[in-house]
Specification:
Largest sheet: 13 strands, antiparallel
Distance between the termini: 36 Å
Number of helices: 6
Number of strands: 13
C-alpha cells in the first residue's frame, strides 16, 4: 500500500495529465437515461462504464452524441436536458439555440423542441442565467459556481425531508438529511469530489429487523440512537457519512484515484460482484481502458468489526483487500468479465452481461 501511495503522489507531481472527472452518484436519473439510450442503440457504449460507475465527462460525451436521435421522445429530451444542466462544466461554449436571459425554464417546457432537431445544439449558454450575488445560481442546477482559467468549483447543498406512517408501526418513519456536495477541477487535469451528509432517520420494519440482527446500518459506519425531544414517536438513528476522493490521468488510458468511499462492479440494483452496500473505506483505484478492454484495480483498507462492538474503545484492527476486474465488451449486446478478490479468502467470479 505504501508503494502505491508513493507512486500516486509522484505521478501527481510530475506527469502530463489528461482531463477526467468525478462520478455521477449511483441512483441518479442519469443511470436510468443511460440504460434507455443504450437499449435504443443510439450510440456505441463499448468504451464506456464497464463497471457501471458513470464518469461525468465520458457520460456527457456519450449523451451529447445522442441528442439528435430521431426516435427520442419529449420525455427522453427532458431527461437529457437535466443531465446536461447537472453536468454543465462539460458542455461546449458554442450556441445555436437562442434562449433569452431569465427564460431557461422554457427549455424544460418544450421550447427547444420547437426547433428542427438538426438545428438544435445544447451548450453552456443554453443554461446561463443572471446569477444571485455574482456567484450563486449562475445555472439552474448549481448553487455556487466559481470559474477561473485554472480552477473550477461547483458546490450544491443537499436537503431531504420526509415523514410518513407504516401500517402496524406506531413510530413515524422519517428521514432528515442535510449536507453538501462539491466537485472541483484544477487545470482540467486533476479533479476533487466530496459528499458530506448528516442524517437522522428511521427505517421500515424489515430494515429495522436487519439492523437489530447485525448491529449495523446498511451503507453506514458509526451511529447512535436518536429520540426527538419535540415530536412524539420520532425515534431512529443519527449518523454522519463522508465521501471524498482525488483523481487524475497520468496517461490517456489510465486513471488513478485515491479517497474514502465505496464501489460498485457489475449490474443490477445490488451486484453479486462488488456492491456499494458497505460503509466507506480508504482506497487506491486504478482504471485502465485499452480498446474494448477495461481493467480495474482497487486496493482498500477496511475494519473487520463495527465501532459499536469495540467495548474497550481501542483502535480497530485493519484488514486489506485487493480487487481486480477485467472486462471485455466487444459490442453493445455482450460483455464478459472476470473478478478476483484477495482478502481473508480468495474469490474468482465470472460475470456475463448479455
Amino acid at each position: 500500500m505504501k508503494f502505491y501511495l508513493c507512486l500516486f503522489f509522484t505521478l501527481l507531481m510530475t506527469a502530463h495529465l489528461f482531463a477526467q472527472s468525478p462520478y455521477i452518484l449511483r441512483g441518479d436519473q442519469a443511470y436510468h437515461t443511460y440504460d434507455r439510450v443504450d437499449i435504443l442503440r443510439l450510440s456505441d457504449t463499448t468504451l464506456i462504464n464497464s463497471v457501471n460507475n458513470y464518469n461525468r465527462k465520458m457520460t456527457m460525451d456519450f449523451f451529447k452524441d445522442t441528442w439528435n436521435g430521431e426516435i427520442l421522445t419529449a420525455k427522453d429530451r427532458y431527461d437529457l436536458l437535466h443531465i446536461y444542466s447537472d453536468n454543465y462544466e462539460f458542455l461546449g461554449v458554442e450556441d445555436s439555440v437562442n434562449v433569452s436571459e431569465g427564460q431557461n425554464d422554457i427549455i424544460f417546457r418544450g421550447g427547444v423542441n420547437e426547433l428542427p432537431i438538426n438545428q438544435q445544439k445544447i451548450s453552456k449558454s443554453t443554461f446561463a442565467q443572471k446569477p444571485i450575488l455574482k456567484y450563486f445560481y449562475k445555472t439552474p442546477a448549481n448553487f455556487l459556481q466559481l470559474h477561473t482559467p485554472s480552477f473550477e468549483l461547483i458546490v450544491n447543498p443537499v436537503v431531504q425531508l420526509s415523514y410518513y406512517n407504516q401500517v402496524n408501526n406506531e413510530n413515524i418513519v422519517f428521514q432528515n438529511i442535510r449536507g453538501v456536495e462539491a466537485r472541483a477541477y484544477i487545470d482540467n487535469k486533476v479533479y476533487f469530489y466530496t459528499h458530506l451528509l448528516e442524517t437522522q432517520r428511521s427505517y421500515l420494519d424489515y430494515t429495522e429487523e436487519w439492523i437489530n440482527k447485525y448491529r449495523t446500518i446498511p451503507g453506514q459506519g458509526f451511529w447512535k440512537n436518536y429520540i426527538s425531544g419535540v415530536i412524539p414517536n420520532l425515534n431512529g438513528y443519527d449518523y454522519f457519512n463522508a465521501k471524498a476522493y482525488v483523481g487524475f490521468h497520468p496517461v490517456k488510458s489510465i486513471n488513478i484515484e485515491f479517497g474514502h468511499g465505496n464501489h460498485f462492479i457489475g449490474n443490477g440494483y445490488r451486484s453479486l460482484l462488488l456492491s456499494d452496500f458497505s460503509h466507506n473505506y480508504f482506497y487506491l483505484k486504478f482504471n485502465t481502458r485499452i480498446w474494448k478492454f477495461h481493467y480495474q484495480n482497487i486496493f482498500a483498507e477496511m475494519a473487520p468489526t463495527s465501532t459499536l462492538l469495540n467495548l474497550n474503545d481501542v483502535l480497530l484492527p485493519k484488514k486489506y483487500t485487493a480487487t481486480h476486474y477485467l472486462a471485455f465488451k466487444p459490442n453493445n449486446k455482450f460483455e464478459i468479465g472476470i473478478l478476483k478478490r484477495l482478502y481473508l479468502l480468495e474469490k474468482i467470479i465470472l460475470n456475463f452481461n448479455i
